Amino acid sequence: MEGIIAECGGSMTCLTCHCYVTLPESGSLPEPSANEQEMLDCVLEARENSRLSCQVVVTPELDGARFDIPQWQG
Ligand code: FES
């Protein structure tokens, strides 16, 4: 996606896919895996809704979700 670098291609080593996920009212997203959470603990400007977008599986439950990237990343 434009604006998301995702340099490592999803192997969870670069953090350049960090984003803030805002779910629609009825939306849901599985909790991050232990590995994803470990990496999220290292990102700059982490928030409660921080995720590695390379680990997000697009499902109908994400319809209407918003993915924002940190300003310094864009
Ligand atoms: S693409 Fe590198 S951590 Fe997600």
Automatic annotation (TrEMBL):
Family annotation (InterPro entries): 2Fe-2S_ferredoxin-like_sf (IPR036010), Adrenodoxin-like (IPR001055), Beta-grasp_dom_sf (IPR012675)
Cofactor(s) demanded: [2Fe-2S] cluster
SUPFAM superfamilies documented for this protein: 2Fe-2S ferredoxin-like
Gene3D superfamilies per the UniProt record, alphabetical: 3.10.20.30
GO BP of this protein: P450-containing electron transport chain
One MF term in the entry's GO annotations: 2 iron, 2 sulfur cluster binding
Keywords recorded for this protein, A-Z: 2Fe-2S, Iron, Iron-sulfur, Metal-binding
Protein's UniProt name: 2Fe-2S ferredoxin
Species for this entry: Novosphingobium fluoreni
